[in-house]
Amino acid sequence: MIYSKRNDKIDFFGGEPAIQPHFLEALRYAKSLGIKCWLGTNARVFYYKEFAKRIAETGIDMVRSSVYGHDAKLHDSITTVPGSFNQTIGGIKNILKYKIPLIVNVVIMKPNYRHLEEITKLLIGLGVSDIKYSSLILRGNAYKNRKSLAVEISKVKPYLQKALKNAAECNIKIRIEKNPICIAPEFAEHFIKESDPRVDPNEMFSKSEKCKKCKYNSRCVGISKRYEGLFGLSELTPQ
Predict the structure, then answer these.
(1) Which residues pair with 171 in a beta bridge?
(2) Domain with 168 in it
(3) Banded pLDDT at 7 (limits 50, 70, 90)
(4) From the CB of residue 19, how many other CB atoms can be counted at a distance below 10 Å?
């Protein structure tokens, strides 16, 4: 949980906050003080309608969740939890049913990058109106499994662009994070700054010397330093 005094906002995230025994009590108390509250969750607990209803009644300001695949086989293989896809999708349906503001994050990685358009269509079909596309940050277990998870942005680019075009055609609010703008320059206005307050972009991300000539240099985060260690910086193309 992170409290930002400047924005008068509490962000519940890390692990699964929604299953903590005092979460609902803490959320209600924070809202009673007029504090904005966001929740990062896998949405599985929202599969239970009564829980979703109680959260909606608090007036929570935003829920963030992630979908890793367009079907149970892919999603569950990434989460390593059988049945997680069905619960997450059911949870998203209930979040939308009770009109809780929702952002769904699509984390781009080697197992799913070829299915970005299908994941996008799935979310649009559910009624999701706000989708964020972000690259996997290679730390912890993700770094340990980097050979099976990390993928070159040059391979991702055509699949991501198709997904973004599909989302744009359906008037979806698009956010792109943890990616260099040159991966989808026609959507430059949709790239956002690093949203995790624990992350210092200057410490985690790299740019090549040629990026200084790019018209988006001041806005672009670049590529993660651990990505650079795996694949280098040659894929970065100044606009």
Answers:
(1) none
(2) 2-197
(3) low
(4) 12
CB 134 within 8 A of CB 108: yes
Separation of alpha carbons 80 and 42, rounded Å: 13
Residue 151 lies in a domain: yes
Neighbours of 154 (CB within 10 A): 12
In this structure, what is the dihedral angle of CA atoms 21, 2, 38, 125, given to the nearest 10 degrees? -100
Token pair listed for 46: 């929202």
The CA-atom distances, in angstroms, between 17 and each of 85, 148, 186, 189, 202 are: 19, 28, 36, 32, 29
Q: What is the pLDDT of residue 2?
A: 47
Tokens at 7, concatenated: 């924005």
Task: Tell me which residue has tokens 């956002």.
Answer: 192
Cα–Cα nearest to 191, from 208, 205, 203:
205
Residue 234 lies in a domain: no
The runs of H, that is alpha helices, within the chain are: 23-32, 49-58, 72-79, 84-97, 116-126, 141-144, 146-149, 153-169, 201-204, 225-231
CA distance 211 to 202: 15
Residue where the block lists tokens 């969740």? 65
Asked if residue 225 belongs to a domain, the reply is no
Centroid of chain to Cα 17: 17
The total number of structural domains that make up the chain: 1
* C-alpha to C-alpha distance for 69 and 59, rounded to whole angstroms: 29
Determine the pLDDT at residue 45: 97
- Is residue 150 pLDDT above 80, yes or no? yes
- Give the domain CATH number at 25: 3.80.30.10
Q: Is residue 177 part of a domain?
A: yes
**Three-state DSSP class for residue 206:** strand
